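My hope is that you will study the record closing this message with an eye to the fold:
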Amino acid sequence: MAEPATNHTPQDAVAAYKRLLAAILDRRPSGTRQRLATALAKNRSFVSQISNPAYPTPIPASHLAQIFELCHFSSAERQEFTRLYARAHPRKMLAEKPQRAAAVELPDLGDDAKNRKLHGLVSAFVRDITRLIDDEREKGKRR
């Protein structure tokens, strides 16, 4: 997707990657926004804010991997989104660490809402553990 020539302010740069995310979400099946909210352990309104170019709320870098996965970004879409995101938040992209994918098999609870909730809880738990480990590493470096 071509980027408008008006991306001169930080708000314009944020709006550019949000427009791309909104376009991708609009092409996905019904329920994708709710699944994304659950996976991020956020309310659906948070997904609306991070996908609406009118809101200046940036997308946290820690959410990008899950957004790419759950929204099924193509490699071209991911590359374009990453380029736009890096333009809007150059320091965040420099600080981003490589991600490793891991599959965890969860039981089917027989209810879609319960399954989504379980997935969100496990995902949040893993993110919290990762942050805790990163915080401990950072404390060790300061000594």
Notes: The two ends are 46 Å apart (CA to CA). The chain has two domains: 1-95, 103-143.
